[in-house]
Design goal:
The complex is a heterodimer of chains A (257) and B (321). Chain A is of the alpha/beta class and 257 residues long. Chain A has nine helices and twelve strands. Chain A has helices at 23-33, 53-60, 76-90, 110-122, 135-143, 165-174, 189-197, 207-210, 215-235, and strands at 2-4, 7-9, 13-16, 37-41, 46-47, 50-51, 65-69, 94-97, 126-131, 150-151, 181-183, 202-205. In chain A, the strands form four sheets. Chain A has a five-stranded parallel sheet. Chain A is globular. In chain B, the strands form three sheets. Chain B has an eight-stranded mixed sheet, with helices on both faces. In chain B, strands 8-2-1-9-16-15 form a six-stranded mixed sheet, with helices on one face. Classes of the chains: A alpha/beta (257), B alpha/beta (321).
C-alpha cells in the first residue's frame, strides 16, 4: 500500500481539480478514478481575498484527502504565503509545492523551490515538491526535509508523456526508498502505465482527465492503467531482446545454426 | 388576467417576462438596480454559440441553445447578427484546435485564405481556424434595453431601484435575481467572470473570435462604434471586486495576438460579474413556495434564458393561475 507522509492510501492516482466542465463532472471523475487524493489550486480560485468557498466545499464533500497546491506561484515567498493560506482553508499540513520559473514553459524554478521547501518543512509542512528529474535538486529537496519527490515527465499540460525515461529510471535508482510521484506531462493512460512500470509510486495528473471528451471515463481508464503498471512492476517484467524467442521447442529446425 | 411578479430584470427575468406576456399574463418586474440588465448580464459576451460551448459543456447546453438566436430575433428584431463564430489558435496551440474540433460539431476547417475571406482584418494571421457558421451574437446591453422597452409598450410595469410594487396580490412570484439568489439556494455557487471593452477604428471584425487559451475561453466580440468586448474569465470565487492584473494581462495579450492593432486600442471599461451556477453548470427552473425560480445560468445567460423562459412559462400556464 502506498504510504505518503505516514498516510496509507488506497490508490496511486492523485487527481487535479482544475478546468473540468463542471464540479459535477469533476466529482464523477474522482469517484470513477478511485483517487484517494485530489489537488486543489488556491490561487487560481481565489480573488480579492475571497477563496472559492462553494467550490472548495464541493471538493471537501468528495470525501478524499485534499492536497492544496501553490500552482501559479513564481517565487518562494509567494509559494510560502499560499501554503500558509492553504493550511488555514483546508486544515492540512500537506502542500504540493510548485514554484514556476517561467510563465510560458512552466518549468519549475528549482532554486526558489528548494528555498521554499526548506522554510515550509521547518514550519511543519509535509511538502510534495514539483521538480525536474535532476538528481542533485532531488537530493537538496530531501536534505531540507522533503520525504517525497515529484518529478515531471514532460512540461505541464503538454500531454507528451515520458520525454526522458532514462532520467526517470536514474531517479528511481538514486532514491530507492523515497516515494516518487510523476507530476506533469502525462497525456494518456499508457504514459501512466509506463512510469509505473519504471517503479514510480504514484502519478499526479489533471489536464489529461479534465480535458478529455468524457472525463469520468478517462479517469477510470487512468485508474486501471496505474494499477496495471504497478502490478507489472511488482511481477517482474521480461527484459527486451533483439531476437525472437520461440515459446515452444522447435526440433529439427536450424535455430542453433 | 393572472398577475405575476418577476424579481430581477437581467437576462433571465426579462426573457421570462417576455414569454409570460406572450401568453397573456399580466406581469410586473421588480429590480434592485437603477436600470434593467445591470447585473451579470451587463458584462455578458452575448454569444449565441451552442456548438462552441459544447467544447466544455454538456450536450443539453447545445440542445437547449439551438433555438436562442431565433428567439432573440423574434423578441428584439434587428439585434441578432447571424455571422457565425471563428475559432483561432496560436501556431503552437494547434493541437488544442484539433481537440476543440473533435469535441464540437457544426464547424468547418478554414485555411489561411479562408480566414482572410471571412475576416479581412485577420488575413494572413492564422494558418488554421474553425468556422461555426450557424452561430450568432448580439449586444447584451442594447438587446436588454430594447426588450424592456418593448415590454413596457405591452403594459409591463417596471419597479426599478428597489421600489416595491403597490399592494397587489400576485398569483405567482418568479425569482430571477441571478447572483442574489445564491443565498436562497444552497446548491448554487458564484463563478466570477471578468471582461473589458476596447475601442479602436483600426480593426474591423464581423463576428466573435475565440482564441484558444490554456486557462480561459477568451473571446473578442465586435460591438458598434468600433468597440470590442473581450472576455471572460471563470474563477471559482464569489467576488465582484475589480479585475485582477493577471486577467487584464491575459485579455490584452490575447487581443494583441489576434491583431496587433489592439495594442493601440483604448481601454474603455473593465467589469466583473458573478454568475450563479449549480454543480453541473446547467440552469434550472425550480418550484418554490411563492412560485418559481429561474437560476443557475452560469456563463450561458443569453444562450439558455430563452429555453428556461419557455419552460417557466409552460409551468405557470399548466397551473392555470
Amino acid at each position: 500500500m502506498l504510504s505518503l507522509y505516514d498516510a496509507k492510501l488506497s490508490s496511486r492516482l492523485l487527481l487535479g481539480t482544475a478546468r473540468y466542465p463542471s464540479p459535477a463532472v469533476l466529482a464523477d471523475a474522482v469517484t470513477r478514478s478511485g483517487a484517494a487524493i485530489v489537488t486543489v489550486s488556491l490561487r487560481r480560485e481565489t480573488s480579492g481575498g475571497k477563496t472559492g468557498g462553494a467550490f472548495f466545499e464541493l471538493i471537501r464533500q468528495l470525501g478524499v484527502r485534499i492536497l492544496p497546491n501553490t500552482a501559479g506561484c513564481h517565487s518562494a515567498s509567494e509559494a510560502i504565503l499560499t501554503a500558509r493560506m492553504a493550511r488555514e482553508v483546508f486544515s492540512t499540513d500537506w502542500i504540493k509545492l510548485e514554484v514556476i520559473g517561467h510563465h510560458d514553459s512552466l518549468q519549475p524554478d528549482v532554486f526558489e523551490l528548494v528555498e521554499a521547501a526548506r522554510i515550509l518543512c521547518a514550519d511543519g509542512f509535509s511538502v510534495f515538491p514539483y521538480t525536474t528529474d535532476d538528481l542533485v535538486v532531488g537530493e537538496k529537496l530531501l536534505s531540507v526535509g522533503c520525504r517525497i519527490l515529484m518529478p515531471w515527465c514532460a512540461p505541464i499540460g503538454s500531454a507528451a508523456g515520458p520525454r526522458n525515461p532514462s532520467a526517470l529510471t536514474a531517479m528511481r535508482a538514486a532514491f530507492p526508498d523515497v516515494p516518487l510521484i510523476v507530476d506533469a506531462g502525462i497525456g494518456r493512460p499508457s504514459h501512466a502505465t509506463m512510469v509505473m512500470e519504471l517503479g514510480y509510486d504514484a502519478v499526479l495528473l489533471n489536464t489529461a482527465v479534465a480535458g478529455a471528451g468524457d472525463p469520468p471515463a478517462m479517469a477510470e481508464a487512468f485508474g486501471q492503467a496505474i494499477e496495471a503498471g504497478r502490478l507489472a512492476y511488482r511481477s517482474g517484467m521480461l527484459e527486451p531482446r533483439d531476437m525472437a524467442v520461440p515459446s515452444t521447442p522447435v526440433f529439427g529446425k536450424g535455430v542453433f545454426a | 388576467m393572472p398577475a405575476v411578479l418577476v424579481k430581477g430584470a437581467g437576462v433571465a427575468g426579462l426573457a421570462v417576462t417576455y414569454e409570460l406576456v406572450k401568453r397573456g399574463f399580466s406581469v410586473e418586474v421588480a429590480e434592485k438596480g437603477d436600470a434593467v440588465g445591470l447585473g451579470a448580464s451587463h458584462f455578458a459576451g452575448g454569444m449565441l454559440a451552442p456548438f462552441c460551448e459544447r467544447e466544455a459543456a454538456e450536450d443539453i447546453v447545445t440542445t437547449l441553445g439551438l433555438a436562442a438566436a431565433g428567439w432573440w430575433e423574434a423578441a428584439v428584431p434587428g439585434e441578432v447578427h447571424r455571422r457565425g463564430t471563428l475559432v483561432v489558435a496560436q501556431p503552437r496551440d494547434l493541437p488544442d484546435l484539433v481537440r476543440f474540433a473533435a469535441r464540437t460539431s457544426g464547424h468547418v476547417w478554414l485555411d489561411r485564405g479562408g480566414v482572410g475571406d471571412l475576416e479581412p482584418a485577420l488575413s494572413g494571421r492564422f494558418e488554421k481556424a474553425l468556422f461555426f457558421e450557424q452561430e450568432a451574437h448580439l449586444d447584451p446591453r442594447r438587446t436588454l434595453a430594447g426588450l424592456a422597452e418593448g415590454l413596457r409598450e405591452r403594459g409591463v410595469v417596471f419597479h426599478l431601484a428597489g421600489q416595491q410594487p403597490a399592494d397587489r396580490r400576485f398569483a405567482a412570484m418568479l425569482d430571477c435575481t441571478g447572483a442574489a439568489a445564491i443565498r436562497l439556494f444552497p446548491e448554487l455557487r458564484g463563478v466570477r467572470g471578468e471582461m473589458l471593452y476596447l475601442e479602436t477604428p483600426d480593426v474591423t471584425l464581423s463576428r466573435p473570435i475565440r482564441m484558444l487559451h490554456p486557462r480561459h475561453p477568451i473571446y473578442i466580440v465586435p460591438r458598434d462604434n468600433h468597440r470590442f468586448m473581450v472576455g471572460a474569465t471563470m474563477i471559482e470565487a464569489e467576488d465582484d471586486g475589480p479585475i485582477t492584473a493577471r486577467s487584464l494581462t491575459e485579455f490584452l495579450n490575447a487581443a494583441y495576438a489576434v491583431h496587433p492593432a489592439f495594442g493601440e486600442a483604448r481601454l474603455l471599461e473593465t467589469g466583473t460579474g458573478i454568475r450563479p451556477a449549480f454543480a453541473d453548470n446547467i440552469p434550472q427552473v425550480i418550484e418554490t413556495e411563492e412560485g418559481l425560480a429561474v437560476t443557475g445560468m452560469h456563463r450561458h445567460g443569453f444562450l439558455l434564458a430563452p429555453a428556461m423562459a419557455v419552460r417557466a412559462a409552460d409551468i405557470l400556464t399548466r397551473k392555470r393561475l
